Amino acid sequence: QSALTQPASVSGSPGQSITISCTGTSSDVGGYNYVSWYQQHPGKAPKLMIYEVSNRPSGVSNRFSGSKSGNTASLTISGLQAEDEADYYCSSYTSSSTPWVFGTGTKVTVL
Amino acid sequence: QVQLVESGGGLVKPGGSLRLSCAASGFTFSDYYMSWIRQAPGKGLEWVSYISSSGSTIYYADSVKGRFTISRDNAKNSLYLQMNSLRAEDTAVYYCARDLTTTVTHDYWGQGTLVTVSS
Known about the structure:
B: 4-stranded antiparallel sheet
């Protein structure tokens, strides 16, 4: 099972919006609405930001939103803030031999 | 509040063994599936294994199948990962995570424990 493809880095200025893509196949992202997004600050554990493509857990800012089109899911961060600078990983359920596959990860830099 | 605390990591020689533990609190442990997920230094996340709430269903990543064994003790609110025949490529921070089967996601993660395989 290959990792989902994410851009290595995305950057934006404070207040701007950025979008991170996550591309898979019809066996994972395209086939199920079980895409999650995780935020990871350096040296910290990942934190769930989005589940089931577009749902936010309680306590997660509404500046974070998710969507999906075909085999590509996206995470949009609106009103970018310094605290959003972190690594972001997508994950999807997959019909392969293992139930989950993660993305390659994207480093978000706030300029 | 939900807490997951991993322990048992350390330095081990190639071919050696190590047993990781994850102590859970703040929720009814026996109601939840649990996973182990690892992250090699400077690399991305890799799902390793999961176990159902009763322990009757278990899956492994191909990279660890036959070498790692996941288990749980619901009476002790604990999750375990027995790692045998360790290789240099198993070097990583190992996280335990709570799984939500309804939404197919990992909603809480521990802080991780570092396993280093080196001679």
